[in-house]
Amino acid sequence: MTRHNPEQRSSPHDGDTPRRPRARDDRGRAQNDRPRDALGRPLPHGASGVPRQPEGIVRTPGQTLELGQDLLDRHRPFHAHDVFEDHWKQTTGADRPLWRGLAQLAVGITHAARGNPAGAAAVLDRAAVTIAPFAATPPYGIDVPGIRAWCAGWSTRLDRTGTPPRPLWIEPPRLRSDTAGDDSGQGELR
């Protein structure tokens, strides 16, 4: 039986091609420096990709929601996930799980757009559960009940499609109740 040697990584290149050294931050942690497409999928080194959202940016909850909504509306759910995740990691208060749930929502939309409806449904279910404790008194004008209903509607539709995986765009919900539209999850699959 052949065992995997962690020192020896498989590569699509032949043994004569030198490996590109991995980018590291000032603490020595590995960084992902590969370019990515609009849905966050890695591209080959040297390809032109879509710039990632910078990490460690301090934003107010309102700024985070505004940027996240804008990215979702522009079909950049992977990037919206980065924004929500950044806020989640910086937050220490009681609303920390809310930002995690919004990051999960963006991941669910990303899975659907990448052609993984089962994965999208599972993550949207998790997002609905994660934000559920905030439904009674939603902070920052977030339409928690509407988002939960949207997640449930899309999760059910994606889970029932029974079709082979294919990329599809599902219109994101309005995150704030002051901009709420028809977010029932009954919109079109595109």
UniProtKB/TrEMBL annotation:
Pfam families: DUF309 (PF03745)
Region (Disordered): 1-58, 161-190
Compositionally biased residues, Basic and acidic residues: 1-39
Domain of life, per lineage: Bacteria
Listed name of the protein: DUF309 domain-containing protein
Phylogenetic lineage: Bacteria, Bacillati, Actinomycetota, Actinomycetes, Mycobacteriales
